[in-house]
Structure formats: C-alpha cells, structure tokens
Task: structure prediction
Amino acid sequence: MNEPTPSNAKRRLRRDVLIAAGCGVLVASMVGASFAAIPLYKIFCQVTGFAGTTQVSRIAPKHELGRELTIRFDSNVTPGLPWKFTPEQNSIKLRIGEVATVHYKVVNEAARTISAQASYNVTPTTVGAYFDKINCFCFTEQTMKPGETREMTVVFYVDPAITKDSDQDTLNTITLSYTFYRLPEAARPVAETPDKNSSRL
Result:
C-alpha cells in the first residue's frame, strides 16, 4: 500500500482546516441570526401592525370623524408576578381621530421591590396599523416598591386612515390588551467577608 506523500498530507490538512472553518462560520452565522430575529421581528410588527402590534405617534391627528368605536381594555399579569393590574374603565366610546387618555391601577402586593414591563396588542389584529399611542407606561420598565400603588397612563387614538381600509368598514369594537411580565433581577454582589486582620488594627 502506498503511503501518502508529504504534499498530499498537507493538501488534506488544508482541506480539513477549510471545512472546519466553514462549519464554524456557518454555526456562528446561525446563532447570530437567531439573536437578530427577535428585534427584527419586533421592528417588523411595529412598522406593519402585524399580530396586532400598535403604532407609536408623536402628534395627534388634525381632525376627528363622526364614526365612533368602542375601545375595551384587557389587563393581565404572568404567573409569578404578584401585581394587581386593572383598568380604571372597562371600556370607552371614542371617535376616530379623537385622543383618549386612560388610566390603569397597579399594586405591587409583594414584600419586595419588583421590576416588570408590559407587552401589548390589539384585537382584531388587523387594526394594529391604525391604533396609535402617543404615550404609554408600556414603553418603559416599571419598578415598584413593596406595597406600592401607582396610576399608569396610556394616551392613544385611532388613525382616521382606517376609514380608507374597506376591511374595517364593519369594525365597531377594538380590544387593547396588556400583559405585565416580570423582569429578571439584577445580580446582587456577594457580601464581602470582613478581614480578620483589619479588625485588630
């Protein structure tokens, strides 16, 4: 049997290194894509209103329409979050283009400080592209002290552009839904052990 020559062995080694490097790049690309998928999906939903994701607006519409809609409010907390979360009103009547301000009451029923943030959507999901928030407690993390009660506000309107969408001609009710989920606690530093020698000084 012929033994491989040094030149053949070098070629095989070079080929194996290239294959290994290619596999490494592929794995790294797949991991990177998986991490990027979440923020990209979130941006896609915010831009298109997909899955009932609402829009963010800085200014109110210039006019209101006579057509009224009923806006219902749904509030939830995920298991393990000891917060009481309720809207001050279950529903309101709102003209298209009219700006509304709605308040929610949140109580931290735990004996320690907890941070959480609210996810949100509207149903029917097809109206997400027309439901605009000017301000909302859901935009930021909320940290509440033990037993603290807080009023949280959302300011919104339904974009008059909805009247140009024939699929929404029969729409009369929109449900705005929030779910508070607990945020992981920051790692606490380990307490330092007192230096026995320093206590003798």
User: Anything to note?
Assistant: DSSP finds two helices and ten strands in the chain. The helical segments are 6-48, 196-199. The radius of gyration is 27 Å. The first strand starts at residue 55 and ends at 56.
